Protein: Malate synthase
Amino acid sequence: MIGLGSYGYTAPSSKKINAYDVPQGVDIRGRFDEEFAKILTKDALQFVADLQREFRNHIKYAMECRKEAKRRHNEGALPGFDPATRYIREGKWTCAPVPPAVADRRVEITGPVERKMIINALNSGAKVFMADFEDALSPSWENLMRGQINLKDAVEGTITFNDKARNRVYKLNNEIARLFVRPRGWHLPEAHIFIDGEPATGCLVDFGLYFYHNYANFRNTQGQGFGPFFYLPKMENSREAKIWNSVFDKAEKMAGIEKGSIRATVLIETLPAVFQMDEILYELRDHSVGLNCGRWDYIFSYVKTFQGHPDRLLPDRGQVGMTQHFMRSYSDLLIRTCHRRGVHAMGGMAAQIPIRDDPTANEAAFELVRKDKQREVKAGHDGTWAAHPGLIKTCMEVFTNTMGNSPNQIETVKREDASNLTEDDLLQRPRGVRTMEGLRLNTRVGIQYLAAWLTGSGSVPLYNLMEDAATAEISRVQIWQWLKYGVELDGDGLGVRVNHVFGRVVEEEMARIEREVGKEKFKKGMYKEACKIFTRQCTASTLDEFLTLDAYNYIVIHHPKDVSSKL
Structure:
């Protein structure tokens, strides 16, 4: 392994290797594969390169603006509504009408772009499947390219999966969910593809390759003349939304399709973005189909935004639910904003997994899901997320009991009461306590998730929940915050400071992980490497922006082209 800035390592070569046919200025450093070459065509790569060249400076400026905002927050400033864009918040504009194909989104299922997952999710009975290149995927070259192949087959309706272990062939039903795709965030590079000597922007690779190969088929088979459809993650302000809108405009022009064909839902999953919801919708008004409460990443962002504020320490993450005032205010304002602008207000994730060997625990888990979804639909959300096909029926029943045959609540639940919500409401300190068990759970989950991510899995079942990168991020930044400010564990009568016990906790939780997964799996897995990365980030003097940016270096493998070397 070589330095972080060098992106991974170069695999040895003992024979001449085929190379991709690439346009000028494009260098593919990932492994050659004939199937991958059907995605990485010269014309598709030219489209990605055109996007990169047109927008890279805009993206770099947006990332610099994030750094400047971080500096202000670290010096004591609080995020808030921008006085300069009050005219947008108070204006009487609306987004383009919602396409009929996605009017009803009452239950959406999410998961990585893996072949079996795609088939099961599209067949699940959900209204929408969000196929994920982001937090639910470990972005290895193999995962990314096979994901593109899988999505192309899914849009064409030809996708199958032969599960030899179960002696079963999976294929699509006649009726399937609508397909949305989530590319990576603006901050993530794609280090297997270099354009003009620098790594490509990950989301432009994800979007560009998928759009180029699928827009025509999608509009005929899925979109009823619209599409493709997307989810957009990790944005912090409307400047970043404006870049996406320009990307969509350029893609539509390249394809010769009507302006406003592409539609996207933005995840409001950063604290700065909650103060920019109107502005984000305004920039995307020709392409928007709403906003979503990305609540796990939102909690992560709360800690990250206030990393320099010792008066804003979070309690155990299990206590930071939607009943906390700042979380409920965020959800209510999102509903009001979306419905005022004529688009969907999507609720949050139910991460529970059916517990097949414990009916009592399973029913308790499903009851938590029902209560969460009842809260969402009664608040005015138009739909919700589930991580497992086994939850779809329950979620669907809850939403249908309130909504009936109406496809959504855009016109019927306006939530004008939320117009009174203030910056103080959105920033209110969460209430609760910090416990040794909270510290242990953060440590155990963070290390196990990262170990799975390093070995190719980005969606990981842990303790009857389906976890993605957001959970690991909350776990990491919360421990970092507690260590930085010498927090006392005040919720279980121990009264010890985290700084005094963290090293011992890591050792004990590693031993517990080994007992739980078994010695053989522990030995073969990357648990020790994950532990080093996780603890290094938790104890760093400066908080890393994203866990996955550091860990990405461990999964990048560059393959030489047309080279011969001796063993």
